[in-house]
Amino acid sequence: MPVELRGIALGLSREMxxxxxxxxxxxxxxxxxxxxxxxxxxxxxxxxxxxxAAIRRLDAxxxxxxxxxxxxxxxxxxxxxxxxxxxxxSGYDWEYPExxxxxxxxxxxxxxxxDVPNAWRVDRPADxxxxxxx
Length: 134
Ligand SMILES: [Zn+2]
Hints:
The chain has 4 helices and 4 strands, in the order ββαααββα. By secondary structure, it is α+β, with helices and mostly antiparallel strands. The protein has one domain (14-110). The relative contact order is 0.13. The site of zinc ion has 7 residues, from α4. Residues 73, 84, 86-87, 101, 103-104 line the site of zinc ion.
């Protein structure tokens, strides 16, 4: 659907137009979107135990070098996720990467720890139960 905003014509799908609040979803569309969202949330929730178990396996690593590197790249709570403050900072616009960072992912792979999630796939438990041990 073509949309014109401030003289700029944009080609948007109806889904995108609904997402951005440009048009309102019809009842049937909204019911379908609600069902898809509920399905997505259920699937994501079902994935979390495996991811959380992988994080606990990382916490239990006792390989000396692996432990040193993992402790350096330990997760720090940041809202509904974590960030790594162990990655070296550089540049004026530096932002800490999300955790697990690439270093943590590589160490996990080297140690044979499977199911370590990408940062965008894992939910940090709101009760802090999976935050880094002190
Ligand atoms: Zn890191």
